[in-house]
């Protein structure tokens, strides 16, 4: 299973989103604010803002919270000035990491991420060292025991490119700009969507072969994601289902 799909599934099963909903909403609000500041507050003319708003709604962020974030971005409310940075690094075993942040203090965030990596046996990498391995894709995860042929038909009709069996979920791949349209179409067809996102995904996967290695990797990624400035963490690990199940316990 790909790193993104497996990580998204594990977070869902552990209830990480619900447990940290306040933190999640703060991160989503920051994305909306930055998007509105860069391209205006109209989602019809600002596709980046439209994507940020759709992501927030998928996480069940309130319309009021979304509107306040847009107003901060367009100068109608008090907001900060955030810088978008992507850090590159390595987890133990040579697993590549891309870490997207929005920060109002580059030095603080850089030091925090470097510290989190070094504590867990990882390291920062030079810009471009691992980024070349990744490309952005639309990924919709569908939960449940479904008929593969029927799901394939529904996904293709919705505009998806392919589906893959990820064990307890199905991963539907599409063009990033079509992600939320595919999600809505699949939900309309009766499928339960676990998540819909546009992650950076790598085809150059690094196998993680022991439960202990998998646990270390999960702890590292959780530590990085717990930073308020971190928006997303992408990785290229590949872990067998039985090892991931044991590591998640």
Task: Characterize the structure shown.
There is one protein chain. The chain is 47% helix and 24% strand. It is α+β, with helices and mostly antiparallel strands. It folds into 3 domains: 3-73, Orthogonal Bundle (Arc Repressor Mutant, subunit A); 83-133 and 204-248, YebC, transcriptional regulation domain (Alpha-Beta Plaits); 138-198, YebC, transcriptional regulation domain (Alpha-Beta Plaits, 2-Layer Sandwich). The chain has a 4-stranded antiparallel β-sheet with strand order 3-1-2-11. It has a 4-stranded antiparallel β-sheet with strand order 6-7-5-8, sandwiched between helices. The longest helix is centred in the N-terminal third of the chain and has 19 residues, at 21-39. The radius of gyration is 18 Å and the shape is globular. The chain starts with a helix and ends with a helix.
Topology record:
Blueprint: H1 3-14, H2 16-19, H3 21-39, H4 47-58, H5 63-73, E1 83-91, E2 95-103, H6 106-119, E3 123-125, E4 134-136, E5 138-143, H7 148-158, E6 162-165, E7 169-174, H8 179-188, E8 192-197, E9 200-202, E10 206-208, H9 211-225, E11 230-235, E12 237-239, H10 241-248
Parallel strand pairs: 10-12
Antiparallel strand pairs: 1-2, 1-3, 2-11, 4-9, 5-7, 5-8, 6-7
Helix pairs in contact: 3-4, 3-5, 9-10
